[in-house]
Amino acid sequence: MSTLFKISKILFVSLIIVLLASCNTQVNSKNQNQDPLKGVWKLDAFYTLANSDTIVKNYNKVQHKMYLNGHVLWNTDTDENDIDWSGYGTYSFKNDTITETLTSTSKSMKSDINTYVIPIDLNVNSYKQVNKYYRNDTVFKNIEIFTKID
After folding, report:
1. Please, what's the b/e burial string for 72-108 (b: 16 or more CB within 10 A of its CB; e: otherwise)?
2. What pLDDT, on the 0 to 100 scale, is given for residue 24?
């Protein structure tokens, strides 16, 4: 084998290694920038606190949320009065907070308020959200725990 051929072969192999490393870096950086909420989530637990006392605990409530490309879609079973609760809109996730702006909702959700700012505790395949609201002198917290299913 000629020296020129050996050098060409070494350069070719080096080029392949550099290209593969470059591709791997691009894939890893894409994964790092990937939306951690992307996917389908199922409600596993729901409970309501009133001034720190549990007043409602429901582990049978069926609810799903789907996050994809900046869009959110969620639904739940009808309530005991056969009222439908669902919504669709956009979302963003920053600093452990989801901001959902619903542009289409079921009749029960119609309101002047269509943007919800929800702090969450995010784990790899689950998250907990706490929605706080006030009625008279009582502080209510709806706590929902979701698990990623897809």
Report:
1. bbbbbeeeeeeeebbbbbebebeeeebebebeebeee
2. 47
